[in-house]
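Q: what sequence does this backbone want?
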């Protein structure tokens, strides 16, 4: 009979500890929300340098007006 009295003495403190731990301990973590920061404006894209077309001619044209005169 002494063993049942001894197990009863351990049962209630352990049960009490289990109930306290179950009530006080929460497994869910609070959700952390990110605060919106300032919207960053991307820097302007640089304007590309103008393209240059170089045409090599075999001879000097008769005229600079492309619709007048016989140019080869």
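A:
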């Amino acid at each position: 009979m002494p063993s049942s009295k001894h197990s009863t003495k351990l049962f209630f403190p352990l049960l009490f500890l289990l109930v306290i731990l179950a009530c006080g301990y929460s497994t869910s973590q609070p959700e952390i929300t990110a605060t919106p920061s300032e919207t960053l404006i991307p820097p302007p894209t640089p304007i590309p340098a103008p393209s240059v077309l170089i045409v090599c001619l075999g001879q000097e044209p008769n005229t600079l007006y492309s619709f007048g005169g016989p140019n080869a």
